[in-house]
Write a structure and sequence with these properties.
This protein is an alpha+beta fold. The protein is built from 15 helices and 23 strands.
Length: 484
């Protein structure tokens, strides 16, 4: 985040009540090694404080905050025969973004070093980590509790918190972001003033105060509220693309539509557009003939939301894709699954926690961990084939299938339905049985043997297991293979 208005930044920093973990004032200190140690200490302390930047300012008395100016010119400083800035970058590990600036305000000279923490690991200077303890700079190794906390803090930094656009004015923020979903989707009253709306955005970390009278828009703010995602290079390809094919393969497409709005701005409209174009069957519902989509809306919504939340934003040039065929719908996202596909319903892990929390708070998906469960429950209620979860090296794909009768299902489809039915029962602290699986397939009691064959084959292949190894065949109960 480059400094655009150093005098505005200085004025803002001087409004702080005193020095802090991320802010140090000096007058004249020309010792490069001492400065390097402060850079390490401020970077590490800023991580602990959850700050995006730390500042070392020269030309201000530390206790009085009196503006006195400085004789130091950092951009002219040398360490040996090497420029100070180059030397400092070489001595700091891992690499962090450091901006060194000399400037003048009201006739006085100042210098500032702005440091963006790495969030990869604690920052070292010349092989040693430092930290701010109170007003003092100390070696991190002398404070093991701070060291442990710092290693935890290094894992907090995510794509969502990085800056998509810096130094935006209030007008720029509203031109780029649509705040309406913050209130329309949550029921929260909309403030009357722009300043209060901005504050609400800042509370959600959609924007950050850059301390220069302007704002930085985060990737989280952009991906949720963008009026046009192409205005943000970091998320330009991350809107949902919908493709409809003629038939069951990719040989001929019917249409292709790529969204441009942020997820909160465009999700409802995208779902409406999609549902209107899905293959449909004619059914009589309560005596009225209706055209009903092959796929339950809740199931599609949760799978798409899951794809948005768990995508790998660092995979450039690709985003979530929805592909519609006559007999199925495929939803894919960049980034392989962080969870074994057999454990999709019971294990919880997210690649983008802040995005997931925001999507849930906006009501765009189920509560934590409940989305795919609800998808399977809806699919079972409609007696549809079980979905297929396919994780490859660089992508994750979920396939939802159009209606099929038991006799039309392949052996693999029947066994997949058996496995996920068993998982759903286990999640409710219950067991699968021949009777529950017959109900799942919408089969009468006389089809007992056909279902027994599916159960026996699933046991043989290690997909499910008897709940009690000593149980007889009558009233036998079963659990997923990983539950024994």
């Amino acid at each position: 985040m480059p400094i655009h208005d150093p005098c505005a930044l200085l004025n803002r920093l001087l409004q702080e009540p005193n020095e802090s973990a991320w802010l140090e004032f000096k007058v004249n200190n020309k010792d490069p090694r001492e400065i390097g140690e402060y850079v390490s200490a401020l970077a590490n302390s800023a991580m602990l404080a959850g700050r995006d930047r730390a500042f070392l300012v020269f030309g201000v008395e530390d206790h009085t905050k009196k503006r006195v100016g400085t004789e130091l010119r950092l951009q002219q400083l040398k360490q040996g025969n090497e420029d100070f800035t180059n030397w400092l970058s070489r001595m700091i590990e891992p690499r962090v973004l450091i901006e060194v600036l000399d400037f003048s305000c009201d006739g006085l000279a100042y210098s500032v070093i702005a440091i963006e923490p790495s969030y990869e690991r604690p920052v070292k200077f010349s092989g040693t980590e430092f930290v701010r303890i109170g007003e003092n700079k100390k070696k991190l190794a002398e404070f093991p509790e701070h060291e442990r906390a710092l290693w935890i803090a290094t894992g907090r930094r995510r794509f969502e918190t990085a800056v998509a656009t810096s130094n935006a004015s209030t007008e720029d923020v509203f031109a780029l972001l649509d705040p309406d979903p913050m209130f329309d989707l949550t029921g929260e009253p909309r403030p009357k003033s722009q300043e209060e709306v901005i504050r609400k955005m800042a509370d959600r970390r959609f924007v950050l105060d850059n301390l220069e009278g302007r704002f930085d828009i985060t990737n989280l703010g952009a991906i949720m509220l963008a009026r046009d995602v192409t205005a943000f290079p970091s998320i330009a390809g991350k809107a949902v693309r919908i493709v409809k094919y003629v038939g069951r393969d990719k040989s001929r497409s019917d249409f292709e539509q790529e969204g441009k709005k942020g997820y909160a701005v465009g999700f409802t409209g995208m779902m409406k557009f999609l549902m209107e174009r899905l293959p449909k069957d004619e059914r009589y519902i309560e005596g009225v003939r209706r055209m009903v989509p092959h796929f339950p809306e809740t199931a599609i919504r949760e799978v798409i939301a899951n794809a948005l939340i768990h995508q790998d934003f660092m995979a450039t040039g690709v985003g979530p894709v929805v592909e519609i065929y006559d007999n199925r719908i495929e939803i894919s996202n960049p980034g392989n699954s962080l969870i074994n596909t057999d454990r999709m319903l019971d294990e919880r892990r997210s690649r983008n926690e802040k995005l997931a929390a925001t999507m849930r708070s906006f009501g765009l998906c189920e509560e934590r961990g409940g989305g795919l469960d609800k998808t399977l429950i809806e699919i079972e209620a409609e007696h549809l084939p079980a979905p297929d979860f396919i994780s490859s090296e660089n992508s994750m794909r979920v396939v939802l299938f159009a209606p099929k009768s038991f006799s039309q299902m392949s052996k693999a489809e029947k066994m997949r339905a058996c496995f996920f039915h068993c998982v759903l029962r286990w999640l409710t602290h219950d067991y699968m049985s021949n009777a529950t699986l017959r109900e799942r397939f919408s089969l009468p009691a006389e089809e007992y043997q056909a279902v027994s064959t599916i159960i026996a084959e699933s046991i043989k292949l290690g997909r499910i297991a008897p709940a009690d190894p000593d149980q007889g065949r009558r009233n036998a109960r079963y659990v997923p293979y990983w539950a024994v």
